[in-house]
Amino acid sequence: MIRFRQFLSFCILVTVAIAQKNSQVKYNHSQILSIPDLSFFPQVYTGLDILEQMDFLPVRTKKLGILTNHTAVNRNGEHILDLLQKELSIKVHVLFEPEYGIWGLDDSRAKLIGREPIDPIHGARIINIFDGMVYPPKWAMSELDLIIIDLQDTGVRYSTFLASISKLFEAASDWKIPVMVLDRPNPLRGDIIDGPIPRTEFQSLEAYHLVPIRHGLTIGEYCVLINEMKWVKDSKNVDLTIIPMANWERDTWFDETQLPWKHPIPFIKNLETLLAYTGMDLFRGTNLNTGFGTDSPYLYIGAPWLVANFFIEKLNDFGLSGVLFEEIKYRPRGSIYYNRIPKYDGQSCSGIKISITDKNEFDPIRTATYIIMLIHNLHPREFQWIGDGYIDKLFGSNLLRTVTAQSKSPEILPPQWAHDVYLFNQFRQPYLIYP
User: Fold this and answer.
1) Considering the domain boundaries, does residue 435 fall inside one?
2) Is 30 part of any domain?
3) Which of 266, 285, 319 is where one domain is finished?
4) Inter-residue long-range contacts of 391-394, CB under 8 Å, 24+ positions, other chains counted
5) What is the Cα gyration radius of the chain?
6) Which domain holds residue 90?
7) For a surface tag, which of 118, 185, 233, 286 has the fewest beta carbons within 10 Å of its beta carbon?
8) What CATH number is associated with residue 75?
9) 124-183 pLDDT, tens per residue?
10) Higher pLDDT residue, 113 or 321?
């Protein structure tokens, strides 16, 4: 291990100058740190792994602000804050907290914080930039030399991490603080794009940028896109450096990387759930229960009034690929996941169990929209949209709600967003770090 670290540190230091030259040609405000070819090592190395093998040289002697959460671990499962604790020349001044907190719900260190927003490892103050202080205060920003961003994104537009990053970019731009992003895999592959691009009037925290629901970008690529396109408020940008991964390929699922899985958000406990979430989170805009209050969120869909056996018969007529539907009876009871109270809490629900039989063939967004429209057609009196048109924010437009109200075939929808997918795939090409 020591011999590999010495080799990698030497190679990276030699290539830094080349990286800076190449990135300046390619981008106006962002640079991609060039790293040597590590293809003779079979593993995928994250940006944090690369930085660690460099002995943290690019961040030594600096006072840091870090946007992170419990997913920021190296290949051995060690968290970035634990690793930085060993580097005495580095001062962690402040931690920026995304949605669901820094340590999630499973780590005992979350309990150590108590009422005081203080990190128990570094003694750094914690600022919630999701639902607390939208703009970090002067004391947090004025002394920083660098902001590091390291967390595992979902690859799905609904998650709010990129909205929080955009807010932090805005503050970093005002204070002229450089930003370094440690890249991590898109867990749902980087070569599959799906779903509509939101229309501007329907932008929200769940549709913060104009990207499809399944965007196929790593967090580093997404940050370069935001920065170069000046998608931050008032068209701001930052001095951005990406430490890329080694050996990650675009057709790689997360479970093929050999990296440790950490729930990216509390109720996404495995890759199957994450893939289902890509489509089934649309049900947040309806009065259906999606498995909350059970141990299978996003893999159950039901309600007390749903006639499941007839529904499954009609659903199977669509011939949806890579998925199996089974009738199920269940009773949601409370929820350990954040503060989300399940619909029909304590009531007996009739519904379907979703089993993904082939993740390469399964189309979660098509499947979810077919299910929604079919339930509406079979139960027009019981089915409801909720949250004052919240479905439009999740979907990105009112098209799903409009087509459903017209009782049209669900097969009309996927061609509607196919053009969005084509255009976005062409648009994103200059910002892809990995071939």
Assistant:
1) no
2) yes
3) 266
4) 391/282, 391/284, 391/285, 391/286, 392/202, 392/285, 393/198, 393/202, 393/203, 393/204, 393/206, 393/207, 393/285, 394/158, 394/206, 394/207, 394/281, 394/282, 394/284, 394/285
5) 22
6) 2-266
7) 233
8) 3.40.50.12170
9) 999 989 876 568 889 999 999 999 999 999 999 999 999 999 999 999 999 999 999 999
10) 321
Q: Which amino acid is it at 433? A: I
Give the pair of three-digit tokens for residue 132. Answer: 């607390």
Within 13 A of 128's CA, how many CA atoms are on the CB side?
9
Residue for token pair 């920003």: 141
Backbone angles phi, psi at 9, to 5 degrees: -60, -45
Same domain? For 67 and 154 the reply is: yes
- Is the Cβ–Cβ distance between 283 and 72 less than 8 Å? no
Is 117 in the same domain as 226? yes
Q: Closest Cα partner for 255 from 317, 189, 208, 315?
A: 189
Q: How many domains does the chain have?
A: 2
Global pTM?
A: 0.92
The reply to whether 230 and 307 lie within a common domain is no
Q: What's the rounded Cα separation, in Å, for the pair 38 and 338? A: 39
Query: Which residue matches tokens 């060690």?
Result: 78
Give 374-433 pLDDT, tens digit per residue: 999 999 999 999 999 999 999 999 999 999 999 999 999 999 999 999 999 999 999 999
Distance CA 200, CA 202 (A): 5
Other Cβ atoms closer than 10 A to 380: 11
- The verdict on residue 164 lying in a domain is yes
Nearest to 343 by CA among 306, 380, 371: 306
